[in-house]
Write a structure and sequence with these properties.
With 784 residues, the chain is mainly beta. 2% of the residues lie in helices and 57% in strands. It is built from 3 helices and 59 strands. The radius of gyration is 36 Å and the shape is globular. The model is unreliable at 443-475 (pLDDT under 50).
């Protein structure tokens, strides 16, 4: 066992070595821990002995009297010291899920021109430690897809989901939207899906992070700055060092590292970086595989499936600057496959490109003649602190087919997108954009339900689209060509926000429009917006005032009015009750007034109780105190309510898989009760509920006043113990001792400072919310 010094500086570590015939050996793993690099030619296993004299470039000297090994080695033979900027510890605690159910609802009733109607959106969930089952419904009274005067209900999605945190893999059975690459077009399937899900590791950063390192000859101080903000200042020992995975925001930036040696001489190194979420860190991969029947008429019909299809997508980070990807799709008579990559171009921008080919046995509709087709896609993006620019282009041949094209959504012949923005500091920011879409004509309609003769029907007809009637329903076929250029400007003057935007459509009769406005905050939850603009139907002006209800008990409102064609006025009052968000208002559009009332909330069943709350969009917790009511509950140090008469409170909106801090105010716990902990971190499953029990228990304690046989208080520092096996407590001034876990009849043994022992017996009767004082109790002497 030897102390080790490397290049004249102690490591403050003890190494284990073996000496045979005057030759020193050590295990490979031991040398690595000491910071000495073992070449691959000598590395045969962490527990295999390595001869120190075989290490190239390494010279050792053994000082037996001082039990010290002196090592001299060049920097390339030493393992760099790793300096961590952020806490590298992962999330702790198990993923939890209770057993129960939740029903989210959003129901509203309307009245217009004497005709009453109602709609409702319902999201029902069953959750358990073994996964969750969810289903969504739309319900209509006196209207909806079935037509005026009829009641109907439409099922949206029904899915069973299981999330495997160990493998970051999610399994789904039922209805879902396919996952793919950026250039893939998603479709709805009813079947099976397996996909990677990084949301189960909220602390995982998926894109490559920059690293920096170097070597110092003497112990030094390292100061690191990212975009001018100090990230760390730390002492390091002599030798090589590395600072990996620097936490940075996406886009371009600059890393500055200053190394100050023991003599106070600084050396500054500056490096540019470019971080993008488009890339994956080296070795990280994402994938998705799904197969099933294609879902059609979503939102209109409950069970419309037609034809089997399967898709798969895969991405993997190969290096810090290169991520490769590929995907496949297959359906009856059609197969499509493609691949590409995303590249970091010398820390300046990210380039992505993809090539895909398809083969269809027969033509779809009247476009193309079947056979092979090709799709090309490319894009370039740079996000900077001052100037940002991006452009992308997608081109498809007439015969290119994917699953979406088989059901009426033909891929565009040409799709162009370009944008640029400049940040002007305190003078605001300017942005320009251009979008072009040129799609082959497709006879099959896109299935978006539009009521015949409605205002929406009339306005959509003016865009050059066409209507098609299928099965008694009318669907809209959008325009096939668009060329739109736009520009925007925004700035902040004090607390007032100003904005302006304008556009011109080169493809559809040269339509132009502009909008100018400003938003004025009226308080922490309220603001007013004034705007004016012009479009195809002429000029208009509007004013809007909004106050948002944020916490329980808040009132909110919305008021809106605009001139032009058509004139539009709207007013709504909101109240956030503990059990729901309640809204009521009136909407006047083109001399027709609609009255509306709405309620949004949730009902949950868990831990044998039924709880009403506001809508639960994610996970939730049921806080239980085992009885005490009126205890304040906090989520991430924010008050969220108090426990009810049963000592429980439902806390919505927890982050799935992440650590959520839930706490109770210990000062609200009755004085005769005790708690194990007042704060807990819980990690719930996705879309599930967990029970957070703080274990408040009645302590059954009392303050005893102990006196000796002469009536004098027992000396301070003596000890008392509740018999037979109670905890040992100290005796304070005036013979006071606080003893817990008392029963109706009790006995306490006391040991005085002089070693004498005595014993006292007494009866106890609990008083709710109070700590009884019992005594004076005469302690009778006991023999040793």
């Amino acid at each position: 066992m030897l102390s080790v010094q490397v290049n004249g500086y102690p490591l403050d570590k003890i190494g284990e070595f073996v000496q045979r015939d005057g030759v020193l050996f050590s295990r490979q793993g031991e040398l690595q821990d000491l910071g000495i690099r073992v070449p691959d030619t000598l590395a045969t296993g962490p527990d295999v002995l390595v001869r120190l004299s075989d290490l190239p470039g390494v010279v050792t000297r053994l000082d037996i009297p001082n039990q010290t090994l002196y090592v001299t080695a060049p920097n390339d033979r030493l393992v760099p010291a790793i300096v961590h900027v952020r806490d590298t510890a992962g999330l702790t605690g198990p993923i939890e899920s209770g057993l129960g159910a939740t029903l989210n609802y959003d129901v509203s009733g309307t009245s217009v021109a004497g005709v009453n109607a109602g709609t409702g959106a319902f999201d029902a969930r069953l959750f358990s430690p073994w996964g969750g089952l969810s289903t969504d419904y739309l319900a209509f009274a006196n209207g909806g897809p079935a037509g005026p005067g009829k009641n109907s209900a439409v099922r949206l999605e029904s899915t069973y989901t299981y999330s495997d945190v160990a493998t970051l893999r999610r399994y789904s059975a039922g209805d879902f939207i396919t996952n793919g690459l950026a250039w893939n077009r998603a479709v709805r399937l009813g079947g099976l899906q397996i996909t990677s899900d990084f949301s189960m590791r909220p602390n995982l950063i998926t894109f490559p992070l920059p690293s920096i390192g170097g070597a110092v000859a003497v112990p030094s101080t390292v100061d690191l700055l990212v975009n001018g903000n100090q990230l760390l200042s730390r002492q390091i020992g002599a030798g090589p060092f590395e600072i990996p995975q620097l936490p940075v925001v996406t886009g371009d930036g600059t890393i500055s590292m200053s190394v100050t040696n023991a003599l106070g001489r600084p050396v500054v190194v500056t490096l540019p970086f470019y971080a993008s979420a488009t890339l994956l860190a080296p070795g990280l991969q994402t994938y998705s595989v799904q197969a099933g029947a294609v879902r059609q008429n979503f939102g209109v019909q409950s069970n419309s499936y037609d034809g089997l299809a399967a898709t798969a997508a895969y991405r993997r980070g190969l290096t810090d600057w290169l991520t490769v990807e590929g995907s496949m799709e297959a359906a009856a008579g059609t197969i499509m496959a493609g691949g590409g990559a995303a590249m970091n171009l010398d820390n300046f921008a990210v380039l992505n490109f993809n090539v895909a080919g398809s083969k269809a046995s027969t033509s779809t509709g009247s476009t193309g003649s079947g056979g092979p087709g090709v799709l090309l896609s490319a894009g370039l993006q740079r996000t900077g602190r001052v100037f940002s620019v991006g452009a992308s282009a997608t081109m498809a041949s007439r015969n290119f087919r994917d699953i979406a094209s088989l059901y009426g959504d033909q891929p565009p012949r040409l799709q162009l997108n370009a944008s640029a923005s400049v940040t002007l500091g305190r003078f605001g920011s300017i942005g320009v954009a251009y979008a072009e879409l040129d799609r082959y004509a497709v006879p099959a309609p896109l299935q978006v339900y539009v009521p015949p003769g409605s205002v929406l029907n009339q306005s959509m007809s003016q865009t050059g689209g066409a209507f098609t009637t299928v099965g008694g329903l009318t669907f809209f076929q959008p325009a096939e060509k668009a060329q739109i250029a736009s520009a925007s400007y925004s700035t902040q003057i004090g607390s007032v926000s100003l904005y302006a935007t304008a556009f011109h459509d080169f493809a559809n009769k040269g339509v132009s429009g502009a909008l100018f406005g400003l938003t004025i905050p009226l308080g922490p939850r309220s603001s007013a917006t004034v705007s004016a603009g012009s479009g195809a139907s002429g000029g208009y002006q509007s004013v809007q005032a909004v106050q948002s209800p944020v916490t329980i008990g808040d009132w909110g409102y919305q008021a809106f009015g605009s001139t032009g064609h058509p004139e539009h006025e709207f007013a709504q009052l909101q109240y956030k009750a503990p059990f729901a968000l309640l809204q009521a208002g009136a909407d006047r559009l083109d001399r027709q007034t609609t009255y509306q009332a709405e309620a949004q909330g949730a009902v949950s069943v868990i831990d044998g109780g039924v709880f009403a709350s506001n809508s639960i969009y994610g996970s939730f917790a049921l806080v239980a105190t085992n009885g005490p009511k009126g205890v304040h509950v906090l989520q991430e140090n924010r008050p969220v309510g108090t426990t009810d008469s049963a000592g429980r409170l439902l806390v919505p909106d927890l982050r799935a898989f992440d650590a959520n801090q839930i706490a109770i105010d210990p000062t609200d716990v009755p004085i005769d009760s005790s708690i194990d902990v007042s704060t807990r971190a819980v990690r719930p499953q996705s879309l599930s509920g967990v029970v957070v029990n703080f274990g408040v228990t009645v302590s059954h304690g009392a303050s005893l006043r102990l006196v000796d046989a002469a009536g004098a208080p027992i000396q301070v520092g003596s000890t008392a113990r509740l018999l037979p096996k109670g905890a040992l407590v100290s005796v304070g001034y005036d013979g006071e001792a606080y003893v817990l876990d008392l029963r109706q009849h009790n006995a306490v043994a006391v040991e005085r400072l002089d070693g004498q022992r005595c014993r006292v017996a007494f009866d106890y009767k609990p008083v709710s919310g109070e700590i009884p004082r019992i005594g004076p109790l005469r302690c009778l002497e006991q023999s040793r």
